[in-house]
Specification:
Helix content is 44%, strand content 13%. By secondary structure, the chain is of the alpha/beta class. The chain folds into 2 domains: 7-234 and 552-573, no CATH class; 245-535, Carbon-nitrogen hydrolase (Nitrilase/N-carbamoyl-D-aminoacid amidohydrolase, 4-Layer Sandwich), CATH 3.60.110.10. It has a 6-stranded mixed sheet with strand order 5-4-3-2-1-12. Strands 6-7-8-9-10-11 form a 6-stranded mixed sheet, with helices on one face.
């Protein structure tokens, strides 16, 4: 996975997973892998509770190691306010992989239920892992982070295959690619041990073809995906959206400083100053720029409740230039609550003296009021015009569990627990379906806040196709670890998957303008403070996945299950 891209290690780990499941098929692990002498008793044994349990345990340990290595960085978030949350770090680092590993445990058990000898084991595992990875992306709000299919999205030529079949189908193909060669080689070794000497020539020939068949499967899939990617990249015309020049701003603010009341003025001024300066560090007052983009929750206060901030945004923007920014907002139930119970200052620019910014906009101060249910807070994407007025708005729909809200919020808050943002009552969910924003000068824009970019199927479901995706995020919670790099790679895959540009703007990186093929044409590295200016690559023709989504994956599940069950029934009768 990103940023290491050492996918070849799966040539070893996935076959080991299959062999562990092989061992669960019989109490004495004596089931033969060649498939010719497997007895009906062994098949029945494989369906016993004991066999399922052993396969599930093997799957759980495999998944635990996979997620522990891939998501250890989650612990960094608990060190931002170490004095309050550090005690939770060991539990978080262990419990999240342990919970996600349950999906691999289910894959192990399902593989046993679908098991048939020889190459059928690879088909069974591909089906089981493909299904459970799809479920991981959808159950309990979903968390398709580091889905196994990302192993086939590097380099950029292979990444194009995400636009062909989608990340979940790539998970299935990854199992075929990485499990087939070594599994078939060991099958061949057992066959030759059993058939030589004295076997007939036809049997010997069949045995020698066994390892070649496994390597052939891997080569066929890889060559096919590479060919598709090469053809797709060769069709790039380099077209740009006319008249659009973007400036993405990366302030690189320490997460610990982000919500300090005495830092509000400094942070706001930093965003304004960076916006007025080009990539060479020369002030140009946005000359030639049409759209400025700030990251998630860029302003550490409520801009819609701070008139002077809106006025200063208007002063910053020349006529016709727009600001797209992540920001927090609150729906107040009445004006009395807005101006009475939660008084706010309108006489100063954003500063620590504003109770609205301190209580409602600053998660470190525990929420908008002592009665959080009287207001609804949103993590939003806002568009401001050159007069400082709001011209478009999107409220985040897919909230981060334990980060932006707590499951069973009231019950857990009653015993003193709170999410990492420390906003009492948590954030509210925006309205569905996710809207396309009509912004002057830009194609129809789909806004994604934070980790919404990791969900592939939600981007185009039930709506007009976007011409641009803007993803504002703040990965400052996770420091200089693999987490932000993985997040960036998944955003790149979304671009290739849908054939549209993704403009990703992160507080501390990685920010980039990504073309419809997943290539970063302008980029700011992790922890780099600065801006990047870029034209906007135009969307390309909708790739196959953009038309049919995950239906091809669903069709594979149906066909493979019917085939595996049918073959198992035939083998049982024989």
């Amino acid at each position: 996975m990103a940023p290491f891209f050492v996918a070849p290690v799966l040539f070893v780990t996935l076959p080991v997973f299959i062999w562990l499941i092989d061992g669960s098929l019989s109490g004495d692990a004596s089931v033969r892998r060649d498939g010719e002498d497997v007895t009906k008793r062994s098949i029945i044994c494989a369906r016993t509770a004991h066999g399922l349990k052993r396969a599930a345990v093997a799957g759980w340990w495999f998944g635990f190691g996979y997620f522990l290595f891939g998501m250890f960085w989650i612990g960094e978030a608990f060190l931002v306010e170490a004095e309050k949350f550090a005690w939770l770090l060991p539990a978080a680092v262990m419990l999240l992989p342990a919970g996600l590993a349950l999906f691999f445990a289910a894959a192990g058990a399902l593989t046993v239920l679908l098991w048939r000898p020889g190459f059928g084991r690879v088909v069974a595992l591909a089906t089981a892992l493909g299904l459970t990875e799809w479920l991981r992306g959808h159950i309990l709000t979903g968390l398709p982070w580091n889905t196994l299919g990302y192993a086939l999205t590097w380099p950029e030529t292979l990444m194009q295959s995400a636009g062909l079949v989608g990340i979940y189908c790539l998970t299935i193909l990854a199992v075929f690619v990485f499990a087939s060669p070594l599994v078939r080689v060991t099958d061949w070794a057992e066959q030759t041990t059993d058939t030589f000497p004295g076997a007939s020539g036809s049997v010997r020939a069949t045995s020698f073809l066994t390892p070649l068949s496994g390597m052939g499967v891997a080569a066929f899939v890889l060559v096919g995906l590479w060919t598709y990617g090469s053809v797709r990249l060769a069709g790039d015309t380099g077209a740009r959206v006319p008249g659009v020049n973007l400036r993405i701003v990366q302030p690189s603010i320490r997460q610990r400083d982000k919500w300090q009341p005495d830092k509000q003025r400094e942070i706001f001024d930093l965003h304004v100053a960076l916006s007025r300066t080009n990539a060479a560090g020369v002030r140009d007052d946005l000359s030639g720029i049409t759209h400025v983009i700030w990251p998630e929750a860029a302003m550490p206060f409520l801009p819609l409740d701070t008139p002077q901030a809106l006025a200063e945004i208007g002063e910053m923007l020349p006529d016709g230039v727009l600001l797209i920014s992540g920001a927090l907002r609150v729906d107040w139930p009445n004006e009395a609550l807005r101006t009475g119970e939660v008084p706010r200052s309108t006489n100063t620019a954003p500063s620590a003296s504003s109770d609205a910014t301190t209580k409602a906009g600053d998660p470190s101060h525990g929420g908008a009021s002592d009665r959080p249910r009287q207001r609804r807070a949103y993590n939003s994407l806002m568009v401001f015009g050159s007069e400082g007025g709001l011209t478009a708005l999107y409220d985040k729909i897919h909230l981060v569990p334990f980060g932006e809200y707590l499951p069973f919020q009231d019950a857990l808050e009653s015993i003193g627990l709170e999410q990492l943002t420390r906003l009492r009552g948590g954030f509210a969910t925006g309205r569905t379906p996710r809207p396309l924003l009509d912004i002057p000068g830009l194609p129809p824009l789909l806004g994604l806040v934070c980790y919404e970019a990791i969900f592939p199927g939600e981007i185009v479901q039930g709506q007009e196709r976007p011409g641009l995706i803007v993803n504002v995020t703040n990965d400052g919670w996770f420091g200089n670890t693999t987490g932000p790099r993985q997040h960036f790679h998944m955003a790149r895959v979304r671009a290739a998957e849908q054939g549209v540009s993704v403009v990703r703007v992160a507080n501390n990186g990685i920010s980039a303008v990504i073309d419809p093929y997943g290539r970063a044409i302008a980029r700011l590295e992790l922890d780099q403070r600065g801006v990047a200016d870029s034209a906007l690559p135009a969307a390309v023709g909708r790739p196959p996945y953009g038309w049919w989504g995950d239906w091809l994956t669903m069709l594979y599940f149906l066909v493979s299950v019917v085939w595996l069950v049918g073959r198992s029934a035939v083998m049982g009768q024989s």
